[in-house]
Amino acid sequence: MGGLHLIRLLQFTDGEQWIARIQLDASTQESAARLRSEIGTMDLIRERSTIPVPKVYGYELFDNNSHGTGVAFMLIECFSGNAAMDLDGGYETHRGNILPERKPDFFRAMAEIQVELATIRLPKIGTIIRRDDGSYDVGPIPILGGPFDSSADFFRAWGTLTKFPMSETDIKQRTGGGKLSDKINTTISMFPSQIKSKASQLAIYDGPFPIHHPDLYHSNVIVDNDYRILGIIDWEGACTVPWELIELPLFLSTVPRPMDAAWNYDANGEPKQAETKQRWHDRAWYVSLVEEAENLHGSVMDCQLSKILRDEKLQHLAFSLRQYQEGKLGFYSSILLLFNVNREERHSN
Q1: Is CB count within 10 Å lower at the N or C end of the chain?
Q2: Residue 121's beta-bridge partner residues?
Q3: Do 82 and 221 touch, CB atoms closer than 8 A?
Q4: Out of the domains of life, which is the source (predicted)?
């Protein structure tokens, strides 16, 4: 049981197993569109890559009295493994950290998957739709609209329509009030309009645009007992996005230094916490593995992914937009101070 879905294992008499993934809320046009896009995304990835995503055996998008559930659902392939997060004792044992002996092979396999995903590109930014004739198109993103022809158009829409999911009163209660609370409230309230005004500066790369998995965490990576990857699951919310919003996998996520407390770093700008310092090392290591995977792809890969993942400013930007939508507190405006250069200067770097 998750926040949005109920999952059930279907066992057939011949031993085959499927997964029933059922939306918990009553079907709406919006929920039907989410499911349609998720299925289209998985179909496209299966057609254009070797990335292991579940086969879709059947689905219902909207309750039309043809079945008794009253909600949208799909029947998909079952990977006979466990979420990587749940192995090695689970979260209570390792607190979500991948064990050191697992990292070399797991990081390399994830890098290869992310590189292959980056080769699947579409001309616009938006949700993925599979047409009746089997072709693929790009549709609007919930709340933001679209599809968008450019990253700048996307950022303008984001800055116009995105709302922080917490009131000023709640923010003050969470932060204890006072000057610090006022500063956090100010930076949060100003952030969308700042994104909108800086849209052209933030839009560094042109299309075609890559597919983005919005929750590429090891809770959505199915592995066998030897930690070999069997499948990537939960593609709901996946869409094509600006290159500037492509992130490292979320198991490598760190709070950007501009958004973090200054006392967490020494005089040389290095993190004081051993876990953060290790995460910085792992991030650099992972990018080097992405470069290796890009080189293996040869002429079909332009190495754009490694450029994005190595660009500290873009990683900070992607982190800040994601965290803002999730309602996490922070000094968001500090990220945009990093982009006070023009587009030509950014391309030359």
Answers
A1: N
A2: 210
A3: no
A4: Eukaryota
> 3-class DSSP state for residue 267?
coil
CA nearest to 214, candidates 82, 330, 325: 325
CATH class in words for 1-78:
alpha beta
* pLDDT value of residue 300: 56
Residue type, 268: N
Q: For residues 122 and 136, is the Cβ–Cβ distance under 8 A? A: yes
Return the SS3 of 142.
coil
- Average pLDDT, integer, range 100-124: 97
H or E segment at 83? Answer: strand 82-83
pLDDT of residue 297: 79
In the chain, count H helices and then E strands: 12, 12
What is the rounded average pLDDT for all residues in the chain? 92
Per-residue confidence at 349, pLDDT binned at 50, 70, 90? very low
Residue 268 pLDDT class (50, 70, 90 cuts) = very high
Q: Within 13 Å, how many C-alpha atoms sit on residue 266's CB side?
A: 8
Domains 1-78 and 81-348 share a fold: no
Spatial separation of the C-alpha atoms in residues 119 and 121, rounded to whole Å: 6
**pLDDT of amino acid 178:** 87
Within 10 A of 182 (CB to CB), how many other CB atoms are there? 14
Quickly state the pLDDT bin for 179 (edges 50, 70, 90). confident
pTM higher than the cut 0.85 = yes
330-to-188, 230, 321, 326 alpha-carbon distances in Å: 7, 36, 11, 12
> How do the domains of the chain map onto residue ranges?
1-78, 81-348
The DSSP line for 190-248 is HHHHHHHHTHHHH--S-SSEEEE-TT-SGGGEEE-TT--EEEE---TT-EE--GGG---
